[in-house]
Design brief:
Largest sheet: 9 strands, mixed
CATH topology: Endonuclease, Chain A
Strand order of the largest sheet: 3-11-17-16-15-12-13-14-18
Helix content: 25-40%
CATH superfamily: Endonuclease Chain A
Number of domains: 1
Structural class: alpha+beta
Radius of gyration: 21 Å
Number of helices: 11
Strand content: 15-25%
């Protein structure tokens, strides 16, 4: 892996015709304007690497729950991992906590219905989002692709990790290894924003809210004034991806504008829009170190074939690409300038950014940014860099 040139840091103040131009909107105000995301300060955040660490943290939180547990997961298998979570949720009910579980009909199609009925009989309120029916697209889209746990309205976990053995042992018959993934623990005010996001999806699922109707309510920005130089980190915005709103895509483009040093992205299912590709090209041509980590083997092989159609164009414009050499790289993360970190469920493809319901935590915290960069560089050690001369087309 050859060394890269780190461009000199640009001045925070640009000039046009020798007149100073003030910096653009802050992280907090920018997130509100492009993604309708409130931002809070004084959050404690921690990265989790891979399924075992994430599952242990989630089970520990559920076992500490006193009043409430909400769990939303696109994947919830009836395997040994699902059984472990079912038992933890039952224990929470036995202690008197309110427990709700939100699943997606497509994501849970391989889950035994008897397993779901068993969970419901234990006192857990189970709902399934968007079952097929006589409505738009026959109910097959959009999907609830989010992964979210909130306990006692004070602490939550989100990321790309589903509930299943893929994230512990992998599923291949040969060369099996656990799926590579990332999640984040968030304790503080942002956990209440995560809970509010869950409540919105819950109301949609049980039919108490028409899709998007809550957006007709006048809602003032909260936290748009926060300044990382004066407010306690971590600053966290919870971005709720909704059909046709392109929120994470716009956030990437804003970050591409703001990036001075680096844009490092890990994404499992990569089929970017022309505007996303243009943003990455522009940053790379302007001297920003743009790196993308992708799976070399994919649980949906056609997605990798589609992703490789972008390789030559990206490499020609200075973007560097790596392919993870394990069974599956499933993370959905970004780290910009070692300062802004995104961890969530959104991949850069039409389903992720434009069709499904998704949820991402966007965090401004240099300490977490350094950890995210170290994690990304460690992943590159288990990956192979894609060279232009080896790309067809």
């Amino acid at each position: 892996m050859h060394s890269h040139r780190v461009p000199a840091r640009r001045s925070s103040e640009s000039r046009v015709d020798n007149y100073p131009v003030a910096p653009g909107p802050s992280f907090s105000r920018g997130l509100w304007r492009i993604a309708a995301a409130d931002v809070s300060s004084d959050n404690h955040v921690r990265l989790l690497r891979d399924g075992p660490a994430t599952f242990d943290a989630m089970i520990e939180l559920i076992d500490e729950a006193r009043t409430s547990v909400v769990l939303e997961s696109y994947i919830f298998r009836s395997d040994e991992v699902g059984e472990r979570f079912a038992e933890a949720l039952k224990r929470a009910v036995d202690r008197g906590a309110s427990v709700r579980l939100l699943l997606d009909w497509i994501g849970a199609r391989g889950t035994a219905r008897s397993f779901i009925r068993q969970i419901a009989r234990a006192g857990i309120d189970v709902q399934v989002f968007n079952k097929p029916g006589l409505r738009a697209w026959l109910g097959f889209v959009p999907r609830d692709h989010r992964k979210l746990l909130v306990v006692d309205e004070r602490i939550g976990i989100t990321g790309g990790v589903g509930i299943g053995r893929e994230w512990t042992t992998g599923v291949l018959k040969t060369h099996r290894s656990r799926w590579r993934d990332t999640a984040v623990v968030i304790e503080g005010p942002a956990a209440r924003d995560m809970l509010a996001a869950f409540e919105t999806m819950w109301r949609r699922t049980v039919g108490r809210e028409r899709r998007g109707s809550h957006r007709f309510l006048r809602r003032a920005a909260r936290g748009a004034h926060l300044d990382p130089s004066t407010h306690t980190p971590a600053l966290v915005g919870i971005v709720e991806g909704e059909p046709l709103r392109l929120r994470v895509s716009r956030a990437l483009q804003i970050q591409a504008i703001s990036a001075e040093r680096s844009i490092w992205i890990a994404t499992a299912y990569f089929a970017p829009s022309p505007s996303e590709v243009e943003a990455l090209h522009g940053a790379a041509r302007d001297g920003v170190d743009v790196r993308i980590l992708l799976p070399s083997r994919n649980d949906h092989p056609w997605v990798s074939l589609l992703a490789r159609r972008y390789y030559r164009r990206l490499l020609t414009n200075g973007v560097r690409l790596w392919e993870w050499q394990g069974e599956m790289m499933h993370a959905k993360t970004s780290v910009i300038d070692g300062r802004w970190v995104r961890v969530g469920s959104t991949d850069f493809n039409p389903l992720g950014v434009a069709i499904n319901y998704e949820l991402d935590a966007v965090i401004e915290d240099p300490a977490l940014g350094q950890q995210a960069e170290e994690m990304f560089l460690a992943d590159l050690e288990s990956s192979k860099e894609v060279r232009l001369r080896g790309v067809r087309g």
